[in-house]
Design brief:
Elements: H1 37-48, E1 52-57, H2 62-65, E2 70-72, H3 74-82, E3 89-93, H4 96-105, E4 111-113, H5 129-141, E5 148-153, H6 158-166, E6 170-172, H7 177-185, E7 193-197, H8 200-210, E8 218-221, H9 232-237, E9 240-243, H10 255-264, E10 268-272, H11 278-281, E11 286-287, H12 290-299, E12 305-309, H13 312-321, E13 326-329, H14 345-356, H15 368-382
Parallel strand pairs: 1-2, 1-3, 3-4, 5-6, 5-7, 7-9, 8-9, 10-11, 10-12, 12-13
The structure holds 1,3-dihydroxyacetonephosphate and iron/sulfur cluster (SF4).
Iron/sulfur cluster binds near residues 95 and 123.
């Protein structure tokens, strides 16, 4: 076995600075059994006052999200981070790529902190810069690179965003992938192709269901195969070159559970995240980002039934907040995002109490060159016209 691009490190043990996962988390954490953790978090937050701004992604645990000053999907959190230049410390309760984006979008004086460095994203790990650069060269050899616009999902490392920035591309999130793709397809006239990184499902779902492309217009680039496993003819014919990456959490949802639930629950509405497989998304009634999922449930009439295909912390919170609606999880088994769950109350308290003592732990700092190039791609996203219905 010669593949060394993706070393498999047990979470939280060992160090791989190139990876979104498996980074050691140093420090003297308070025990999870400490009955004073909530009081300690409240006291540390109060002591830091306006210096601190806590961002919380919707997949965070209840015990952590209650301390967030703002909550949101990836797009909203990126915008919120950029909108608080007076906060000295931004504690990001989310995953590594989100904290990197916050660092890129904030001023150099602001420090972004991720309470547990092992909070990565397995999908982001599926596209490594060396692999993407090899693919880019192969596209040149196949004679198509000058027509290709790289588009990366927010769920990617900063160096992939920088790659997109320096090669005329853009970042997108689950709430603006449609406008980002429309922008991309305008860049080189009718022959434009998109290299979509790293989530093949978001790329395919958006291209087919929102832009009206055919499934046959999409090919999958396998970074572990020479030439991506694609012939020159396949590349010449394709409009969407989808990177072979996926979310292991959303990959669990299956079309047969939708059929099963529809047979059992009358008037069931199925609401899923666009990271789900195409076969699932085509069977759903509504598709959108975590923010869209929340807004949809908030607006739903009492008594309505919903099966939701996204991370379980969010689905449980929605079910608890809306006891007048029949909310169920779209999988037979529990399905948390293990890396989102790394941010727990002990890590949160540890990070905040260190800040109170003037010690910055777990700072996420993107180097200057990567930051400048990634900012180009992020700014192109922030400048995209309007928002979609999935806002
Ligand atoms: P959202 O941008 O919809 O919040 O999704 C982020 C994510 O990681 C989903 O897996
Ligand atoms: Fe990454 Fe999936 Fe977790 Fe989102 S839910 S952070 S895409 S592993």
């Amino acid at each position: 076995m010669t593949t060394v691009d993706l070393p498999l490190l047990p979470l939280g043990r060992g160090t791989d600075p190139l990876s979104e996962r498996g980074v050691e988390c140093p420090g003297d954490l308070p025990p999870a059994s400490d009955p004073d953790l909530v009081a300690r978090a409240e006291a540390a937050k109060a002591a830091l006052g306006e210096k601190l701004f806590v961002l919380g992604h919707h997949y965070q645990r209840d015990e952590v999200i209650r301390f967030a000053d703002v909550t949101g999907d990836s797009f909203k959190l990126a915008r919120d981070a950029a909108a608080r230049p007076e906060a000295e410390y931004i504690v990001f309760c989310g995953v590594h790529f989100m904290a990197e984006s916050a660092d890129i979008l904030t001023t150099p004086d602001q420090q972004v902190i991720l309470p547990d460095l092992a909070a990565g994203c397995s999908m982001a790990d599926m596209a490594r810069l060396a692999q993407v650069e090899r693919a880019w060269e192969a596209l040149a050899e196949a004679g198509v690179q000058d027509k290709v616009v790289p588009v990366t999902y927010m769920n990617s490392s900063a160096d992939i965003k920088a790659f997109c920035g320096r090669n005329g591309g853009v970042v997108c999130t689950s709430s603006n992938a449609e406008v980002a793709l429309e922008w991309a397809f305008e860049q080189h006239g009718p022959d434009t192709k998109v290299l979509f990184l790293p989530d093949q499902h978001l790329g395919r779902n958006t291209a087919v269901l929102q832009l009206g492309l055919d499934l046959d217009d999409c090919v999958v680039w396998n970074p572990l195969k020479p030439g991506g496993g694609l012939s020159a003819e396949e590349l010449a014919d394709a409009k969407m070159i989808l990177w072979k990456g996926h979310c292991s959490v959303h990959g669990r949802f299956s079309p047969d559970v939708i059929d099963e639930l529809r047979a059992k629950v009358p008037d069931l509405n199925v609401l899923v995240h666009p990271e789900c497989q195409h076969e699932v998304v085509v069977k759903a009634d509504l598709v959108g980002s975590t923010e869209f999922i929340i807004k949809t449930i908030e607006a739903a009439p009492a008594g309505s039934s919903w099966a939701i295909g996204t991370e379980l912390n969010l689905v449980q919170r929605l079910a608890n907040a809306h006891p007048d609606k029949n909310i169920m999880f779209l999988d037979r088994n529990v399905c948390y995002c293990s890396t989102m769950n790394r941010i727990d109350l002990p890590h949160f308290v540890w990070a905040l109490e260190n800040l109170v003592n003037g010690v910055v732990v777990n700072r996420i700092e993107v180097d200057e060159k990567t930051e400048a190039e990634a900012l180009v791609a992020l700014q192109r996203m922030l400048d995209l016209p309007g928002r979609t219905a999935r806002d």
